[in-house]
Specification:
The strands form two sheets. Strands 2-3-4-7-6-5 form a six-stranded antiparallel β-barrel. A six-stranded antiparallel barrel has the order 9-10-11-14-13-12. With 240 residues, it is mainly beta.
Length: 240
Protein backbone atom coordinates (compact mmCIF):
# COMPACT_ATOMS: atom_id res chain seq x y z
CA UNK A 1 0.00 0.00 0.00
CA UNK A 2 1.32 3.45 -0.86
CA UNK A 3 2.41 5.58 2.09
CA UNK A 4 1.00 9.08 2.50
CA UNK A 5 3.37 11.74 3.84
CA UNK A 6 2.58 15.30 4.96
CA UNK A 7 4.66 18.38 4.15
CA UNK A 8 4.49 22.17 4.10
CA UNK A 9 3.99 23.37 0.51
CA UNK A 10 6.13 25.86 -1.38
CA UNK A 11 4.37 27.40 -4.36
CA UNK A 12 7.41 27.28 -6.64
CA UNK A 13 7.70 23.52 -6.12
CA UNK A 14 4.11 22.46 -6.79
CA UNK A 15 2.08 25.20 -8.51
CA UNK A 16 2.09 25.89 -12.22
CA UNK A 17 -0.47 27.74 -14.35
CA UNK A 18 -2.48 25.19 -16.31
CA UNK A 19 -2.08 22.43 -13.69
CA UNK A 20 -5.11 20.06 -13.90
CA UNK A 21 -6.90 19.83 -10.53
CA UNK A 22 -9.55 17.58 -9.08
CA UNK A 23 -11.90 19.26 -6.61
CA UNK A 24 -13.96 17.05 -4.26
CA UNK A 25 -16.75 18.40 -2.07
CA UNK A 26 -20.14 17.51 -0.63
CA UNK A 27 -23.22 19.00 -2.32
CA UNK A 28 -26.74 18.19 -1.17
CA UNK A 29 -25.37 15.43 1.05
CA UNK A 30 -23.49 13.70 -1.75
CA UNK A 31 -19.74 13.67 -2.42
CA UNK A 32 -18.93 14.90 -5.95
CA UNK A 33 -15.72 15.42 -7.92
CA UNK A 34 -15.04 18.01 -10.61
CA UNK A 35 -12.13 18.67 -12.95
CA UNK A 36 -10.63 22.15 -13.10
CA UNK A 37 -7.43 23.97 -14.05
CA UNK A 38 -5.19 26.21 -11.95
CA UNK A 39 -5.03 29.78 -13.29
CA UNK A 40 -3.04 31.52 -10.56
CA UNK A 41 -2.57 31.99 -6.83
CA UNK A 42 -1.65 34.39 -4.06
CA UNK A 43 0.91 33.02 -1.65
CA UNK A 44 -0.62 31.83 1.67
CA UNK A 45 -4.01 33.30 0.65
CA UNK A 46 -5.83 31.53 -2.21
CA UNK A 47 -5.70 29.56 -5.44
CA UNK A 48 -7.72 30.72 -8.43
CA UNK A 49 -8.97 28.13 -10.91
CA UNK A 50 -11.55 27.50 -13.62
CA UNK A 51 -15.12 27.21 -12.43
CA UNK A 52 -15.92 23.52 -13.15
CA UNK A 53 -18.25 23.48 -16.14
CA UNK A 54 -20.30 20.66 -14.63
CA UNK A 55 -21.49 23.02 -11.88
CA UNK A 56 -23.09 25.43 -14.32
CA UNK A 57 -22.64 29.18 -14.03
CA UNK A 58 -25.82 29.59 -12.00
CA UNK A 59 -24.70 27.21 -9.26
CA UNK A 60 -23.81 28.72 -5.93
CA UNK A 61 -21.52 27.25 -3.27
CA UNK A 62 -21.37 28.97 0.09
CA UNK A 63 -18.05 30.48 1.16
CA UNK A 64 -16.43 28.23 3.74
CA UNK A 65 -17.66 24.97 2.12
CA UNK A 66 -15.02 22.28 2.84
CA UNK A 67 -13.36 20.63 -0.16
CA UNK A 68 -10.33 18.59 -1.12
CA UNK A 69 -7.96 19.54 -3.96
CA UNK A 70 -5.71 16.94 -5.55
CA UNK A 71 -3.42 16.73 -8.57
CA UNK A 72 -0.51 14.78 -10.01
CA UNK A 73 2.99 16.23 -9.63
CA UNK A 74 6.41 14.71 -10.22
CA UNK A 75 5.26 11.09 -9.88
CA UNK A 76 3.14 11.80 -6.79
CA UNK A 77 -0.54 12.22 -6.08
CA UNK A 78 -0.78 15.39 -3.99
CA UNK A 79 -3.83 16.55 -2.05
CA UNK A 80 -4.94 18.87 0.70
CA UNK A 81 -8.09 19.69 2.65
CA UNK A 82 -9.24 23.27 2.31
CA UNK A 83 -12.38 25.35 1.68
CA UNK A 84 -14.10 27.41 -0.99
CA UNK A 85 -13.33 31.12 -0.53
CA UNK A 86 -15.45 32.68 -3.29
CA UNK A 87 -17.04 32.12 -6.73
CA UNK A 88 -17.21 34.71 -9.51
CA UNK A 89 -19.53 34.13 -12.46
CA UNK A 90 -18.84 37.30 -14.49
CA UNK A 91 -17.08 38.35 -16.64
CA UNK A 92 -15.25 35.00 -16.41
CA UNK A 93 -16.42 32.14 -14.17
CA UNK A 94 -13.72 31.61 -11.54
CA UNK A 95 -13.37 29.67 -8.29
CA UNK A 96 -11.24 30.80 -5.34
CA UNK A 97 -9.90 28.18 -2.91
CA UNK A 98 -7.91 28.69 0.30
CA UNK A 99 -4.14 28.22 -0.06
CA UNK A 100 -2.85 25.00 1.56
CA UNK A 101 -1.16 25.01 4.94
CA UNK A 102 0.07 21.46 4.47
CA UNK A 103 -0.21 18.92 1.66
CA UNK A 104 -0.31 15.13 1.66
CA UNK A 105 1.74 13.25 -0.92
CA UNK A 106 1.41 9.69 -2.16
CA UNK A 107 4.21 8.34 -4.35
CA UNK A 108 2.94 6.48 -7.40
CA UNK A 109 4.54 4.42 -10.12
CA UNK A 110 6.05 6.50 -12.94
CA UNK A 111 2.63 6.74 -14.57
CA UNK A 112 -0.37 5.83 -12.44
CA UNK A 113 -2.45 3.27 -14.35
CA UNK A 114 -6.21 3.10 -13.98
CA UNK A 115 -8.72 0.60 -15.28
CA UNK A 116 -10.83 1.43 -18.32
CA UNK A 117 -13.37 -0.23 -20.58
CA UNK A 118 -13.71 2.07 -23.58
CA UNK A 119 -13.78 1.10 -27.27
CA UNK A 120 -10.71 2.11 -29.27
CA UNK A 121 -9.93 2.40 -32.97
CA UNK A 122 -6.37 1.59 -34.08
CA UNK A 123 -5.07 2.71 -37.47
CA UNK A 124 -1.84 2.06 -39.37
CA UNK A 125 0.33 5.17 -39.03
CA UNK A 126 2.46 4.33 -42.09
CA UNK A 127 -0.63 4.35 -44.30
CA UNK A 128 -1.74 7.71 -42.89
CA UNK A 129 1.62 9.25 -43.83
CA UNK A 130 1.19 8.45 -47.51
CA UNK A 131 -0.37 11.41 -49.34
CA UNK A 132 -3.62 10.50 -51.01
CA UNK A 133 -3.54 6.94 -49.65
CA UNK A 134 -6.94 5.31 -49.38
CA UNK A 135 -7.34 3.40 -46.14
CA UNK A 136 -8.56 -0.16 -46.60
CA UNK A 137 -10.63 -2.00 -44.02
CA UNK A 138 -7.62 -4.13 -43.06
CA UNK A 139 -5.74 -0.93 -42.06
CA UNK A 140 -8.11 -0.48 -39.09
CA UNK A 141 -8.61 -2.56 -35.96
CA UNK A 142 -11.14 -2.21 -33.16
CA UNK A 143 -10.28 -3.01 -29.56
CA UNK A 144 -11.03 -2.19 -25.93
CA UNK A 145 -8.88 0.02 -23.70
CA UNK A 146 -8.21 -2.10 -20.58
CA UNK A 147 -6.13 0.43 -18.66
CA UNK A 148 -4.77 3.90 -19.24
CA UNK A 149 -2.00 6.10 -17.84
CA UNK A 150 -0.34 9.36 -18.81
CA UNK A 151 2.32 7.40 -20.66
CA UNK A 152 0.33 4.74 -22.46
CA UNK A 153 -2.40 2.13 -22.39
CA UNK A 154 -3.20 -1.54 -22.88
CA UNK A 155 -5.72 -2.52 -25.52
CA UNK A 156 -7.40 -5.90 -25.94
CA UNK A 157 -8.05 -7.13 -29.49
CA UNK A 158 -9.98 -10.24 -30.49
CA UNK A 159 -7.29 -10.84 -33.13
CA UNK A 160 -4.34 -8.60 -33.98
CA UNK A 161 -3.76 -7.73 -37.65
CA UNK A 162 -0.31 -8.43 -39.08
CA UNK A 163 0.70 -4.75 -38.96
CA UNK A 164 0.43 -4.68 -35.16
CA UNK A 165 3.69 -6.00 -33.72
CA UNK A 166 6.34 -4.75 -31.27
CA UNK A 167 7.86 -1.57 -32.66
CA UNK A 168 4.88 -0.70 -34.86
CA UNK A 169 3.69 2.91 -34.82
CA UNK A 170 -0.08 3.31 -34.84
CA UNK A 171 -2.72 6.01 -34.36
CA UNK A 172 -5.39 5.75 -31.65
CA UNK A 173 -8.92 7.04 -31.20
CA UNK A 174 -10.85 6.55 -27.95
CA UNK A 175 -13.17 8.21 -25.45
CA UNK A 176 -12.21 9.89 -22.17
CA UNK A 177 -15.61 9.68 -20.41
CA UNK A 178 -16.65 13.07 -19.08
CA UNK A 179 -13.86 14.95 -20.88
CA UNK A 180 -14.01 14.25 -24.61
CA UNK A 181 -13.02 12.13 -27.59
CA UNK A 182 -9.29 11.67 -28.35
CA UNK A 183 -8.33 11.37 -32.01
CA UNK A 184 -5.08 10.87 -33.95
CA UNK A 185 -2.94 10.03 -30.90
CA UNK A 186 0.31 8.35 -31.94
CA UNK A 187 1.44 5.25 -30.08
CA UNK A 188 4.27 2.74 -30.30
CA UNK A 189 3.59 -0.95 -29.64
CA UNK A 190 5.90 -1.99 -26.78
CA UNK A 191 4.71 -5.53 -26.07
CA UNK A 192 2.08 -8.12 -26.93
CA UNK A 193 0.53 -10.85 -24.80
CA UNK A 194 -2.49 -13.13 -24.74
CA UNK A 195 -5.10 -12.99 -21.99
CA UNK A 196 -8.52 -14.64 -21.77
CA UNK A 197 -8.46 -15.56 -25.44
CA UNK A 198 -7.67 -12.01 -26.62
CA UNK A 199 -4.49 -10.25 -27.72
CA UNK A 200 -3.33 -7.66 -25.17
CA UNK A 201 -1.28 -4.84 -26.71
CA UNK A 202 0.91 -2.53 -24.61
CA UNK A 203 1.20 0.91 -26.22
CA UNK A 204 3.40 3.88 -25.32
CA UNK A 205 2.03 7.31 -26.29
CA UNK A 206 4.08 9.65 -28.49
CA UNK A 207 2.64 13.13 -28.10
CA UNK A 208 3.55 15.05 -31.26
CA UNK A 209 0.88 17.80 -31.33
CA UNK A 210 -1.00 16.09 -34.16
CA UNK A 211 -3.40 14.58 -31.65
CA UNK A 212 -6.50 16.46 -30.57
CA UNK A 213 -9.56 16.07 -28.37
CA UNK A 214 -13.16 17.08 -28.93
CA UNK A 215 -13.88 18.73 -25.59
CA UNK A 216 -16.97 18.66 -23.44
CA UNK A 217 -16.56 21.87 -21.49
CA UNK A 218 -12.87 21.38 -20.74
CA UNK A 219 -9.76 22.95 -22.23
CA UNK A 220 -6.17 21.83 -22.58
CA UNK A 221 -3.99 19.40 -24.51
CA UNK A 222 -4.61 15.69 -25.02
CA UNK A 223 -1.75 14.96 -22.62
CA UNK A 224 -3.35 17.14 -19.94
CA UNK A 225 -6.77 15.62 -20.62
CA UNK A 226 -5.41 12.10 -20.03
CA UNK A 227 -3.69 13.32 -16.85
CA UNK A 228 -6.95 14.92 -15.67
CA UNK A 229 -8.97 11.77 -16.38
CA UNK A 230 -6.41 9.62 -14.53
CA UNK A 231 -6.54 11.98 -11.57
CA UNK A 232 -10.33 11.78 -11.43
CA UNK A 233 -10.17 7.98 -11.44
CA UNK A 234 -7.69 8.07 -8.56
CA UNK A 235 -10.24 10.04 -6.51
CA UNK A 236 -10.92 8.90 -2.98
CA UNK A 237 -7.28 8.57 -1.95
CA UNK A 238 -7.64 11.81 0.02
CA UNK A 239 -11.05 11.39 1.77
CA UNK A 240 -12.62 14.10 3.91
Amino acid sequence: MNEITESIPHSTSFLTVGLPLKISLVLNGQKVMYGSMLLGWRETAWLICEWPSQLGHAAGIAAGTPCTVSYLHDGKLVGYRTEIRDMVASPVPLLFIAFPRTVEEMHLRKHARVASSEPALLTRADQLSQQGAVMASEDYAGGLVKDLSQGGCRIALAKSPSWIKPGSVIRLEFELPGLGHVTNLTGSVKNMDEQDGADLIGIEFQFDKLEYIEYRGWGGSVKNAIEQWTLQKLGGLFPF
